[in-house]
């Protein structure tokens, strides 16, 4: 009802009484020249036999709609799995502890926006059909003018495709209804860098068709070392001869140029699944041909490229690494010199 507004930022706009309602009574793209929205509490809960809404709206309602961590439940807000409220009570007082207890996910949108104002880490989010597509690395690009990525938070108006655009409204209109996904950390500073790990598995005759287990990786570059859990949601089924991609976040920026990756593998036996039992008659090794690491930077910022690509291969005479259960494989930047066919020792 107020014409001429330049921008409205919706910090987890309320769901009850607003979601699914007419644009006349809720936030929508026509309310300002630029409407950006951060969704953090769109998960409904089931309590005492009743379905209860999340505090925040899951419905897209802006020109750019951001869904950190899928926009439903935020890292560090599950009070059943951590002493979150007592620690907050001691550190920040009763008022903040009450917010954490009642509306930790809902309030996180405010904290993410504050963190984005002066932080050196950009909240890069990717336009994707679903959060699972995003986590599997299917939407990992940030090409200028494509609308494939955007900046969440205070600097959202400088997103690629909007800055220095002759008619930014045309670009904004094309994004209406799209969802932009990213991941964040558990505590301040919340912003994380995004890494896409591409795992190419070998398939020697001695390998099982598939194995399942847990993967962790250490990435080494001239800027330092970071440790990543590649299976944070539990064990993963891996078929030899296939390639897998996953997006993992970390607060550190390695600046590309990955020199070495150490990959740790642990086979997972489940007594409830007889096919996973691996005692004397099966091979629990994982055979890995190469590991690729991609890291994004926003286009046009400084002298850096928009995407760093590193492909690393096993440091041995074969063209793959044979990683035993609870063992480690080492991969280095020698792929261009290691192009011989798979060999069996």
From TrEMBL:
Pfam family, one: Lipase
Example of a GO cellular component annotation carried by this entry: extracellular space
GO biological process assignments: lipid catabolic process
Record's subcellular location: Secreted
Gene Ontology MF terms in the entry: lipase activity; serine hydrolase activity
Signal peptide: none
Keywords: Secreted
Record SUPFAM superfamilies: alpha/beta-Hydrolases
Main localisation: secreted
Domain Lipase: 5-166
Family per similarity comment: Belongs to the AB hydrolase superfamily. Lipase family.
Protein's name in the database: Lipase domain-containing protein
């Amino acid at each position: 009802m107020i014409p001429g507004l330049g921008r409205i930022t919706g910090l987890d706009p309320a769901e009850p009484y607003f979601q699914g309602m007419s644009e006349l009574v809720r936030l929508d793209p026509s309310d300002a020249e630029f409407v950006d929205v951060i969704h953090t509490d769109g998960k409904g809960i089931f309590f005492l036999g009743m379905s209860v809404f999340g505090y925040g709206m899951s419905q897209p309602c802006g020109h750019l709609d951001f869904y950190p961590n899928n926009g439903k439940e935020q890292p560090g807000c599950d009070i059943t799995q951590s002493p979150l409220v007592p620690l907050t009570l001691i550190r920040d007082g009763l008022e903040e502890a009450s917010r954490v207890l009642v509306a930790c996910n809902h309030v996180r949108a405010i904290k993410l926006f504050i963190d984005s104002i002066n932080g050196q880490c950009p909240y890069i989010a990717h336009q994707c059909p679903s959060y699972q597509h995003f986590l599997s690395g299917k939407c990992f690009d940030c090409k200028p003018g494509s609308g494939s990525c955007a900046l969440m938070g205070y600097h959202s108006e400088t997103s690629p495709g909007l800055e220095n655009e002759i008619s930014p409204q045309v670009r904004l209109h094309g994004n209406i209804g799209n969802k932009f996904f990213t991941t964040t950390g558990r505590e301040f500073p919340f912003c994380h860098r995004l890494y896409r790990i591409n795992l190419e598995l070998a398939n020697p005759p001695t390998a099982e068709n598939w194995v399942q287990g847990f993967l962790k990786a250490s990435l080494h570059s001239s800027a330092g070392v970071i440790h990543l859990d590649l299976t944070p949601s539990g064990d993963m089924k891996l078929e030899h001869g296939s390639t897998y991609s996953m997006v993992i976040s970390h607060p550190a920026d390695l600046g590309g140029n990955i020199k070495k990756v150490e990959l740790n593998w642990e086979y997972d036996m489940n007594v409830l699944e007889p096919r996973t039992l691996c005692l004397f008659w099966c091979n629990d090794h994982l055979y890995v041909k190469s590991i690729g690491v991609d890291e994004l930077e926003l286009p046009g910022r400084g002298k850096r490229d928009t995407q760093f690509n590193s492909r690393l291969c096993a440091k041995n005479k074969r063209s793959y690494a044979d990683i035993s259960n609870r063992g480690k494989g080492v991969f280095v930047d020698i792929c261009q010199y290691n192009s011989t066919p798979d060999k069996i020792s």
